Each structure stands twice: as structure tokens, then as C-alpha cells.
Amino acid sequence: MARIAGVNIPTNKRVTIGLRYIYGIGPSKAQSICTQLGIPDERRVNELSDDEVLKIRELIDREYQVEGDLRREVAMNIKRLMDLACYRGLRHRRGLPVRGQRTHTNARTRKGKAVAIAGKKKVTK
Amino acid sequence: MARSVWKGPFVDGYLLNKAEASRASGRNEIIKIWSRRSTILPQFVGLTFGVYNGHKFLPVQVNENMVGHKFGEFSPTRTFTGHSSDKKAKRG
Question: How many A×B Cβ pairs under 8 Å?
Fold first, then answer.
């Protein structure tokens, strides 16, 4: 069991996979951490020595922004847009797509689950 | 795709003249502009622009956070107040 960057306890997976459980570390950053520290691909998290775990922890602390800090930065960026009253900010406020996607159909990720419109006639054949 | 850095920010040239004239005159008048596509430059900070949205000139007070955005972003062109049946529609 290894705790890296706060509360993350990746399991007995490969290191490159386990590191991705940290918010802010994806495939490419996980890969680059392993190559920088010379950890072979097929090493599992539970096979890491304490020294290696320490090195990973230090590297992440030094080079990358992860977890709470990163979440805060993202939230701040969105908040800045919303306070600015620019178009993107308005879209964030309304919970609609920000980057010009269509909203006639789809956009369900932003709009949430579809809500039935009261009193709308069903098409009958 | 993002604009190449070597080109610098895009601004319609006459805006620079207008902004400078407004600064020289000293009065904080609304500068009417149609150029929604122009980037907001640091030298526009503090001035008030009337950005045309196809209907009227919406006043936009430029502050330093707006630098790098376009004028058009601050002057919405569409009005959507919600559907008639949508009771909990919120205004943005």
C-alpha cells in the first residue's frame, strides 16, 4: 500500500497505471514519471521499495500540480470567467456547452439528464 | 486552432486611434465600436466601450482581467429567456 500525493492508494497494479488514480496524472505524466525515475514498466505498486515511493512523491510534489491544488485552479479559472461576464462565463453559469457545440440535441453531459416537457404531444402514427 | 504568437494580437487599427483620442480628451465617454473581433489590449484598460451586438451598443467597462479576450465576448448577441413551460428557467 502506497500513499502518494495525499489520499491516493493505488492497488497492486502496474506503477504506470496506479499513478493515474491521482487527479491530474494521466497516461503520459505517469509514463514520464516512471522513465525519469528509471522504474520499469512491469513493476507493480506493491513491489516498489520505500525509497522509490519517496522519490515518486518528491517528483510529483516538485513538478506537477495534482489533487486539491489542481481542482482549486480549475475552479478558479471557471470562477474568473463567470465573474467577468463574458460569453464563456455566461455559458458556465447556465450549465450549457461553452465551446460552441449544438444544444438543439445532445449536450446531455452539460445539461444533465433529459427532463420531459409537460403537455407536449406525442407523435402518433 | 489558436492564433500564431508571432502575428501578435489581432486588433482593428482604428480602435487604437479611438482609444488614444478618448484618453487625450479626458472625458470618460463611451466609445462606440462595431469591431467585436478585436482583442482587448492592455492600453484599453479603464476605458468604456459600447460594443455593438447587432441591436444596440452595450457598455463594457474594461478591466485588466478582460485583457486577451475579444470585445464580442462581452456583448451577447442572442436573447433567450427560457421556454414558456419552463418555470424554473434562470436568467444568467
Answer: 25
